[in-house]
């Protein structure tokens, strides 16, 4: 695995800088909560369903508390108090609030310790459910096995959960190892999570708990049939990151798109909001044994892949540190990486290979999320299939582990069943045909590939130095990632950020920091 | 090779052979009958000598086919009418000159990806200084005041901004087209502008990889631009339309 | 997913969407009009919402198109009749047993690639000991006397050999199909056998990647076999035909 | 170029064995002529055209001489005698023979030396025409340049020479460097060369002198337009090899498929005939500065590419020695090589790469004819395009020079214009994208690739030892190449082999052995 002979001290130094940067933001995180974090905590306690107007009960309760200015103590403080006062379940409390039967803010308040104890018990019970699902995954994998690396990751995106299930099963039968159910355009900006099975998405299907369940069942079924555990992926980003993490943990998703900054940069979500949300969502993902996928690949859709390669590496190091602060382990970090160099660039493949090898060596224990060409794909599906083939070649040559399949129709539509079929077939052919190529070749010590890798590492560390100086929020304001500028107080969702008060109650945080591994 | 333009046929390796390639999936298991059905589907398209050259199971419920066949019904190319926004592409200097001369003030151009669409690379390519493929964007035009609102802009917000900046033109980008979401979004905006009484006061232009001028017209827009559009195309269209508008206002052609 | 078998439509990502992919070349330079002509060609096939998703110049005289469109005319799968040579595939032992029992002598099978065709891999796959994909060839059948004449055998020569070996069956392979050369060659042989009065005395079988049972029947052959044929398919067909023949000669079914 | 660290002495030893083997056959060659050699000699003297029945005049004359049992002295002896006796040109003599006006066998015979001198003069004049065409090619290349390596080689095969010309020009404009006009099925077994422009081939177009000229003009025209000399290829094999060589030399073809054994193995042409024919045809090709392509790639369509890899190398070494005996130079030898391993074989690419690198190192100065997958191509054109892509990758990774493009529709039809377009586009993308990859990587000394290359070399040398023992004719009879057995006296064309008599006259042979380079 050590082909580039990188300066290990430089890597250590880069990590230190990234650690400083993340800890700088962590102060803000530790001082705040958000409506979505609080809704997620309720969901973890089992609050589910919608009111008569279709508003999720979690939203109803949090809106009531927020309007009353009570969220600074944490929603659990109030809800658990109601549980104690009324001898109801959290779900019954939420229902009561929605019905107008319970005036949650005006109930008598139990002694602090009593509330905390009860909250702790409820949280522990909730977490034991998540640990159960985690062990279930581990057992199924032990029993059935899973795909061999590079694991083949495909998307389904029909917009209809039932059609998605059909396609997901077909894909697994063809050889896919990981199925991502793409989310409808626009959901990330909704400040609530839609409810129930859905059939009307655009470019993807709504992420709802019912949809997660339907797809989990479909994949468990096909996994048994073909004797391979199939991973299920969804999107844990946008204004509801923490809630989606909660839903995913309970429904045994295996992979979540979950970045510390993607929503800020690509969805214009307020950064103060996202930083707090990403923390709680990653605590959950980490605890549930879910692999997260970060979003650096997206930077290269707006910035140039050759010029901005170092921004990807710098961001990966920051994302890693944020994840470590949530107790995540390296093997849960699918860091975003992409094959986005203009196909006209002479020796473009050498640049790609250098970058792919570089991330493998800087993050030897992380399953890089290795992303295909998208930006330079065109309506010429035949040429596109060739671009995807070189991507497949680069993956196997650099020993990647999570391999998102490119689709020949990338520039046209979300994948048709035959697009996915052809792409899986192509990838399997390449992987089998070149299986041990990586072990056969080495790179010229004074060659282009090594030189390029060293250059990108140097530039990334230099960028981290600059970010460390100004702080991450200012770096985002400067447009240092993806060439997109975001103001610290701009974007959507800032209203949902609440300063924690003394006595803020959220037992999930300390409990989850202990880790969800089998004890 | 003497091509008969009144009856253009696909060309495989011999003039007039009409060869086309097709591929598709059938939602049934692979079988002899399914393969024959695939052939009949092609025949049903009026194709001759349809040969299913490949048939493969995708799963036990789907099967994939590759077909080659001969198309006999040509198209009369001499009668094809292409609907394109405008023909003469002006140089940047000409555009600026025209605005300076005839309008006497900067042209206010507002751009956005509306509603659920967050694909800004296309509208950025048209509007931002940097432009695309070496073609500078509208921001680089001295006489254009280009305001790019970016991604996922609600129609309401766009209209507010249009009032605020006294927009002469509104440029919309729509990239996601699944289940015709772009049609829904574009119709919504057109209706809202109409309702506000703004529709006649602005030039309304839409672009995106699946947008054609024809579709734009159908949806009540003044123009539509597809792939490979650059700022100069849009700018040229805007000033040429403006010219006509000004001419109408003055009751006759201006020059 | 409830598929209506009486109206099977192509499936893209939603049941009934009818999506098909096409590609073809037009023998004209790339232009807006040519692109529109490409769309109209697809529309002329009865396809709806035809979208030319790619248009590219091949040279100044040719242009290439990729189209996606929706097919609305389905096929009634329940009424599709497949023409296939025979259905029951017998084991080698059964074949040998039958020949031993009913014929009482070895079955003489003559094979060749006729006329200009030199592609022997297919006929070898059927006839030679080694066979294909682990399926042994006719040479490995105890009761079959398999004579493989190889490549580019003139019809005259083949007929001479047929007399010499008292062939019960003649197996022909035709791989090259350009300008329908296979049809020409196969017709020539059938006519010559007819003229010689041999046609009724032998089972006449043809195979090749573009051969269907239907085409074989049209050309006056007893059976046709396409891709993925193995020796057992042919052998099974031969003995089953033989059975019928013997039955006819004896005026009734034999068993 | 030295990545495999091969045992150079072993290579030298293999060449010695191959030399012995070729010289063994050369005794037979030197003792015989054939009807086609003699017709070729006439054609070189300018005999062209057909008689009223459409039979080429060269055939008419040779048939007359052969029936009279006179060919043992060489056709030139009799024809030049007629030239002297009747003061006619060779063409006029041939015409006279065809018309029945000249009884060539019954003319008075001039003194031997006089005939030889005149024949020598006529031959020298004929060869100066060929040298002129050769210099013309050199000048055009100096002026326009030629394609960079790997040179992109595509076929046109419409069956209609005019349509071929259109497609050839389109291909050159797209980036093809070499255009091969495939020959109609069956022509190789004709014992005459068809005449005039033709429009009715099947799977290819007749090789005729007029067709050669039409295509040469078309390619010269497009070459000027795009500023790159475009190579023209045709088929110099079958029963008329020497004549086609003569035609090609005069019409300035640049590349000829021209193997010492292909006709024997794949067309069941008699080996005694082919060995003599290949000698004379290669003398011409060598003299004309034409690159020949040998046919070892075909072996892997009937034999297995993994098991029989060494037969390809052994045959290449033999083909090389036969070519050296004709005075050819290494840079004229496009030795046949193919990418024909079953795509299902794990690590198939490593086998391919080992073989590709092996031939580059055993034949460092030869422009290997690097052939694409054909046998394992299927009707799945998308998968086929991927197979071709790995082939393109292997080519650029092993530094090949003549690269025959694979077509996605290989299993379906001769290429449509769009097939060729897509394939050229794909190859150019891969070559540009991976341009300097070969220089960046080295192979593990104890790895699979090197081990496989060593094994193939060892096996090839062992096979050459066995062939050296039994002789090449017996080796062919044993089916040691392509698993096809051919008896020394079987096959087509043996009747056209004639033992040379004392005084056999063919001044072309000694003259051409002097070489056709600019003096
Ligand atoms: C980059 C990209 C993204 C980036 C966008 C980043 C950004 N800030 O723009 C990210 C990663 C965020 C993204 C996200 C998604 N994407 Co996206 N994305 C792409 C991609 C790879 C390239 C688009 C692009 O930038 N093209 C380059 C620009 C320059 O081209 P263009 O937009 O066509 O613009 C030109 C012309 O069309 C025209 N033009 C465009 N707009 C305008 C406007 C005017 C006024 C004028 C005059 C001209 C004009 O001029 C431009 C220059 O010539 C395409 C696939 C592809 N290769 O096309 C998918 C693609 C567009 N995305 C797709 C989808 C589905 C999504 C998601 C919905 C997926 C999901 N569920 O998560 C999300 C959600 C985004 C959302 N809410 O809209 C689909 C759309 C399918 C469809 N036909 O409906 C595509 C085709 C991919 C696919 N095959 O699935 N995406
Ligand atoms: C190998 C090969 C060759 C070899 C043949 C060696 C040999 N001894 O057979 C060589 C290199 C010599 C060759 C030469 C040519 N070939 Co070729 N060749 C191929 C190739 C790559 C594979 C064919 C093959 O072996 N398939 C494997 C066998 C097992 O499959 P099969 O033949 O389909 O057989 C199966 C079934 O069809 C069936 N079957 C076949 N025959 C029979 C008979 C009976 C009785 C039964 C029951 C069943 C049966 O059972 C078999 C097993 O399942 C194909 C492309 C491809 N990938 O298909 C081109 C191809 C067939 N060749 C082609 C051409 C044009 C030629 C040439 C004419 C080119 C030229 N002008 O030089 C020459 C001339 C040959 C000639 N005179 O016929 C074209 C034909 C185009 C067309 N549709 O008309 C093809 C498709 C390539 C192309 N795209 O251009 N070729
Ligand atoms: C980290 C991450 N989150 C989310 C998404 C999807 O976008 P959305 O938030 O609109 O669902 C992406 C893009 O593919 C991503 O990379
Ligand atoms: C050396 C050689 N000669 C000739 C041919 C073509 O065959 P034919 O002799 O039928 O033209 C080939 C096959 O492609 C070949 O490799």
Class by helix and strand content of chain A? alpha/beta
Q: Which residues of chain B form runs of ≥5 with pLDDT under 50?
A: none
Fraction of helical residues of chain B: 25-40%
Give the class-level CATH name of the largest domain in chain A: Alpha Beta
Q: How many domain regions of chain B? A: 2
Strands of the largest sheet of chain B, in order across it? 5-4-6-7-8
Biggest interface, chains and residues, is: B-C, 44 and 44 residues
Level-1 CATH class name of the largest domain in chain B = Alpha Beta
Low-confidence stretches of chain A: none
Shape assignment of chain B: elongated
Looking at this structure, what is the CATH superfamily of the largest domain in chain A?
D-Lysine 5,6-aminomutase alpha subunit
Record field, number of beta strands of chain B: 8
Strand content of chain B: 15-25%
Short description:
Chain A is an alpha/beta fold. Helix content of chain A is 53%, strand content 8%.
Provide a descriptive summary of the structure in words.
The complex is a heterotetramer, with 2 copies of chain A (519 residues) and 2 copies of chain B (255 residues). In chain A, helix 1 (8-30) crosses helix 13. In chain A, strand 9, helix 15 (381-397) and strand 10 form a beta-alpha-beta unit. Chain A is of the alpha/beta class and 519 residues long. Chain A has a 9-stranded parallel beta sheet with strand order 7-6-5-4-3-2-10-9-8. In chain A, strands 1-12 form a two-stranded antiparallel ribbon. Chain A has helices at residues 8-30, 35-44, 57-67, 75-86, 90-99, 112-144, 161-174, 209-226, 241-250, 262-267, 271-287, 299-302, 309-325, 348-362, 381-397, 417-433, 437-440, 448-470, 472-477, 508-513, and strands spanning 32-34, 151-156, 178-181, 231-235, 255-257, 291-293, 333-334, 336-338, 369-371, 402-404, 441-443, 497-499. In chain B, the strands form 2 sheets. A 5-stranded parallel beta sheet of chain B has the order 5-4-6-7-8, sandwiched between helices. In chain B, strands 1-3-2 form a 3-stranded antiparallel beta sheet, covered by helices on one side. Helix content of chain B is 33%, strand content 21%. Chains A and B meet through helix 7 and helix 16 of A and strand 1 of B. Strand 1 (19-26) of chain B pairs antiparallel with strand 1 (19-26) of chain C. The complex binds cobalamin (B12) (2 copies) and pyridoxal-5'-phosphate (PLP) (2 copies). One pyridoxal-5'-phosphate (PLP) is lined by residues 183, 188, 235, 237-238, 257, 259, 262, 267, 294-295, 298 of chain D.
């Amino acid at each position: 695995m050590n082909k580039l002979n990188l300066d290990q001290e430089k890597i250590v130094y880069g990590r230190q800088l990234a650690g400083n940067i993340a800890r700088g933001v962590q102060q803000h995180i530790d001082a705040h909560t958000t409506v979505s974090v609080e809704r997620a905590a309720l969901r973890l306690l089992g609050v589910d369903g919608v009111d008569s107007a279709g508003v999720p009960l979690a939203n109803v309760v949090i809106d009531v508390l927020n309007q009353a200015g009570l969220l600074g103590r944490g929603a659990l403080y109030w809800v658990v108090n109601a549980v104690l006062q009324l001898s109801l379940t959290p779900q019954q409390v939420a229902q009561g609030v929605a019905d107008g039967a319970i005036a949650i803010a005006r109930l008598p308040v139990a002694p602090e310790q009593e509330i905390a104890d009860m909250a702790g018990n409820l949280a522990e019970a909730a977490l034991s459910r998540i640990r159960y699902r985690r062990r279930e995954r581990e057992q199924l994998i032990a029993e059935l096995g899973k795909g061999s690396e590079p694991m083949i990751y495909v998307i389904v995106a029909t917009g209809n959960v039932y059609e998605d299930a059909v396609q997901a099963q077909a894909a697994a039968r063809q050889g896919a190892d990981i199925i991502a159910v793409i989310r409808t355009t626009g959901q990330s900006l909704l400040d609530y999570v839609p409810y129930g099975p859905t059939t009307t998405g655009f470019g993807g299907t709504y992420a709802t708990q019912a949809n997660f369940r339907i797809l989990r069942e479909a994949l468990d079924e096909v996994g048994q049939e073909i004797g391979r555990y199939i991973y299920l992926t969804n999107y844990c980003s946008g204004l509801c990151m923490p809630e989606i993490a909660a839903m995913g943990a309970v429904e045994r998703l295996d992979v979540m798109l979950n970045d510390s900054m993607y929503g800020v940069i690509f969805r214009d979500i307020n950064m103060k909001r996202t930083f707090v949300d990403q923390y709680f969502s990653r605590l959950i993902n980490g605890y549930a044994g879910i692999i997260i996928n970060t979003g650096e690949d997206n930077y290269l859709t707006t910035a140039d892949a050759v010029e901005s390669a170092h921004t990807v590496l710098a961001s990966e190091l920051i994302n890693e540190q944020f994840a470590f602060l949530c107790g995540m382990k390296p093997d849960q970090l699918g860091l975003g990486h992409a094959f986005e160099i203009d196909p006209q660039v002479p020796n473009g493949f050498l640049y790609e290979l250098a970058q792919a090898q570089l991330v493998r060596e800087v993050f030897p224990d992380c399953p890089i999320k290795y992303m295909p060409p998208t930006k330079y794909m065109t309506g010429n599906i035949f040429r596109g299939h060739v671009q995807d083939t070189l991507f497949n070649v680069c993956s196997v040559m650099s020993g990647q582990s999570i391999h998102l399949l490119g689709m020949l129709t990338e520039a046209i539509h979300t994948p048709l069943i035959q697009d996915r079929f052809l792409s899986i077939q192509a990838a399997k052919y390449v992987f089998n045909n070149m299986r041990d190529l990586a072990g056969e070749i080495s790179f010229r010590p004074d060659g282009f590939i090594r030189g390029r890798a060293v250059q990108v590492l140097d530039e990334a560390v230099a960028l981290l130095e600059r970010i460390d100086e100004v702080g991450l929020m200012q770096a985002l304001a400067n447009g240092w990632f993806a060439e997109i500028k975001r103001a610290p107080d701009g974007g959507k969702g800032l209203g949902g950020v609440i300063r924690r008060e003394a006595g803020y109650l959220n037992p999930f945080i300390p409990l989850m920091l202990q880790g969800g591994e089998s004890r | 090779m003497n091509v008969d333009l009144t009856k253009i046929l696909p060309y495989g390796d011999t003039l007039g052979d009409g060869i086309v390639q097709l591929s598709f999936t059938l939602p049934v298991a692979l079988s002899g009958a399914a393969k024959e059905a695939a052939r009949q589907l092609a025949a049903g398209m009026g194709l001759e000598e349809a040969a299913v050259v490949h048939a493969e199971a995708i799963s036990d419920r789907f099967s994939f086919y590759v077909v080659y066949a001969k198309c006999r019904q040509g198209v009369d190319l001499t009668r094809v009418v292409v609907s394109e926004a405008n023909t003469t592409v002006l140089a940047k200097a000409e555009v600026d000159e025209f605005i300076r001369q005839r309008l006497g003030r900067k042209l206010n151009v507002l751009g956005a990806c509306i509603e659920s669409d967050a694909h800004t690379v296309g509208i950025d390519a048209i509007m931002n200084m940097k432009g695309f493929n070496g073609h500078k964007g509208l921001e680089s035009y001295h006489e254009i005041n280009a305001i790019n609102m970016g991604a996922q802009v609600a129609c309401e917000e766009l209209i507010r901004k249009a009032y605020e900046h006294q927009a002469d033109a509104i440029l919309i980008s729509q990239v996601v087209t699944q289940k015709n979401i772009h049609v829904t979004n574009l119709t919504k905006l057109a209706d809202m502008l109409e309702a506000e009484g703004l529709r006649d006061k602005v030039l309304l232009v839409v672009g995106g990889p699946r947008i054609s001028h024809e579709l734009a017209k159908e949806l009540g827009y003044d123009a539509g631009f597809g792939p490979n559009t650059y700022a100069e195309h849009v700018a040229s269209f805007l000033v040429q339309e403006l010219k006509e508008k000004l001419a109408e206002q003055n009751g006759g052609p201006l020059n």
